[in-house]
Amino acid sequence: MTETAAPQVRAGRIAVASFIGTAIEFYDFYIYGTAAALVFGKLFFPTVSPLAGTLAAFATFGVGFVARPVGAVVFGHFGDRIGRKTMLITSLLVMGTGTVAIGLLPTYGAIGIGAPILLVICRFLQGFGLGGEWGGAVLLATEYAPKGRRGLWSSFPQIGPAIGFVIASGSFLLLSGTLSDADFEGWGWRVPFLASAVLVVVGYYIRMKIAETPVFEKAMREQEKAKAPIVEVVKRQPKTLLLATGAFILAHTLFYTITTFSLSYGTTELKLSRNMLLICAMVAATVMGIATPLLAVYSDRVGRRRVCIAASVLAAVWAFPLFALIHTGNPLLIGVSLSVGLIAFAALFGPMGAFLPELFATRYRYTGASVAYNASSIVGGGITPLLATQLIASTGSSVPVSLYLAGIAVICGLCVYFLRETYTVDLTTDAGLHR
Fold it and tell me: ∠ at Cα 346 (342, 352), nearest 5°?
């Protein structure tokens, strides 16, 4: 049986519903990363050196990435058993609660050691919610997509991170540009976290208006529900799960090196202007947002593997110019450095929205795609800023970070090479998956 295309009238609604959630969720995640790079070391870890404070702030940043696979398993389990829509709404609310709570937290100066403990708890909630968000959003778009256009449709939620990052960076840029350093550190940093409440309400309203995906409904009519989706994924497609996880470590590594670590490195080590770096990062994220759907559509024509392997090659080659251009301190060259890096990210991230769901059977697709995506984030997003900070602190050079990036790119390319091509598969059948 072939895939049934979703009615054309639903295209706009599905695009907005899948996009709005990831934009909000990643906005929440990015404001934390930006605050960790700029102020959390001083506010929550003031008793240690600036370097140790930055490392501690990035460690709490990493907690969210550890929580993401946990959220992927939990939300994936229920998403594969009761449906995509309910889990999309729940993940949004969990993430929003954690984010708003951070904006209300007292700092170390007010309650001492309780402040960083509460920060870690809120950060875990953020990561737990995001663990269920991405998989549900891409499945919503992919399972509704007409035949031959899954790359295009799955790019709707993939654009969300670019928008989320631009809004997050823009809010910090506005606040840091209009407030004194004392006011920004005293209360200004809280505003983006509290503003998340408004975005969550909007996202909740939009997602309440969508229906369950036709592919999932068909599978539930014709198949028995998976009792333990994570067990089935590990049992039936272990090789695919491992390769898919390895393949997408690079996406997280590129993004958080360029957006989170580079911001911290540029302001603390190179003494560059915070506002200038934020503007350069916003320009690069805008370029990424444009490149993402274009490259996703291209993968509908030439295949997911070819585009993703090209991304790994570009990332490996660009790992060294990336920091060399940042070291110049020239805003134009820094903008080029970050933009090319995020184009490499887009070449991997754009096709990923369709590629990961296409690799797994419908009955455990939510779990398989979510776990692979979020498990890869532990190394790429959680460990990379910490490791990069430590490498530069111990060597005084960015070369080890570039070598690390290039190594991750090689691993990614090899993993993608050994994955099967999926852009022509029929999502309503599981033929050829269990190998």
Answer: 145
